Amino acid sequence: MDTHVAAAARSRAALAGKTAIVTGSTSGIGLGVAKALAAAGANVMLNGLAAAADAERARAELAATFGIGAGYDAADMTRPEAIRALVARTEREFGAVDILVNNAGIQHVAPVEDFPDEKWDAILAINLSAAFHAIKAALPGMKARGFGRIVNIASAHGLVASPFKAAYVAAKHGVVGLTKVVALEVAEIGGAEGGITANAICPGYVWTPLVEKQIEDQAKSHGLPRERVVREVLLARQPNKRFATVEEIGALTVFLCGEAAASITGAALPVEGGWTAQ
Fold first, then answer.
1. Is the pLDDT of residue 191 over 70?
2. Of 156, 198, 204, 200, the residue nearest 176 (C-alpha)
């Protein structure tokens, strides 16, 4: 049985009646989070770069598998007006945005002196500014209802740095800081369901098809077996030497969106096998 379907059987009503936006959710971590939220009963608005047929397939599968309302919006996360339109459309079609998961992100690796200006601008726009604009658009409705859950997918690089990732590290540190500011601003907003919270999840390496391709490429370019690439290259800084899974990130997101996490806010929660404990 699919792990998300099994989760649905266990916690079907946890988020019933709620609606979530998950940015960057047509593949990878974002799609895993979307499935987990749908399994818990939430309606989901998908977003991301995908061919129209692929996006529709993901939307239809989500709706059919979990029996929830599902939509897709191709909003460009570099454009504030498109982000505002995404939030407005979700409110119009589903009645509210109760949960906002800011997951969209891109990466580029280069030394600071060689880092392309356009890559810096794009990474800051998609990884950090997009979260700001989405939160800004969604907060008024959350405040009016006295309930909201904001989950920002940051990174272990929101807590520690690595060479050659200037823009990504700067953006993810910014996401953690933004999370704390929002949490403090909404801390006293009450509601029978637990008010509004804002938290950041900080994954290390998460296994996705994209990461699997990186393993294959690194193995070929370095002439190393797959196992050595995993342990000595990708997971060199993760003490447990295993990838996190999209299901783990999804399960934590669902928990943060539920009543049991009403007192967890402003937190940056590592899911990185002990990386930042060193």
1. no
2. 200
Q: Which of 172, 182, 184, 185 is nearest to 150 (CA)?
A: 182
Whole-number average pLDDT of the chain: 94
Q: What is the pLDDT of residues 107-129, one digit of tens each?
A: 999 999 999 999 999 999 999 99
Question: How many C-beta atoms surround the C-beta of residue 212 within 10 A?
Answer: 12
- At 230 the pLDDT is 92
Domains of the chain, residue spans: 3-206+245-277, 207-243
Show the DSSP H helices in 112-208 as ranges.
117-124, 130-145, 166-185
Q: Which residues share a beta bridge with 170?
A: none
Unique residue bearing structure tokens 């059919």: 64
Look at residue 84 and tell me whether its pLDDT is greater than 60.
Answer: yes
Helix (H, G, I), strand (E, B) or coil at 195: strand
Q: Quick count: other Cβ atoms within 10 Å of Cβ 204?
A: 23
21 backbone dihedrals φ, ψ, rounded to 5°: -105, 130
- The CA distance from 238 to 232, in Å, is 10
CATH 3.40.50.720 fits 3-206+245-277, yes or no: yes
Query: Please, what is the angle between helix 246-257 and helix 3-11, to 10°?
Result: 20
3-state helix, strand, coil in the chain (%, to 5): 55, 15, 30
Q: Which helix (H) or strand (E) holds 9?
A: helix 3-11
* pLDDT at site 190: 78
Q: Which of 141, 64, 60, 61 is nearest to 100 (CA)?
A: 141
Q: How confident is residue 188, by pLDDT bands cut at 50, 70 and 90? A: very high
User: Which sequence positions are flagged as catalytic?
Assistant: 168
What does the alpha-carbon distance between residue 269 and residue 203 come to, in Å, rounded to a whole number? 8
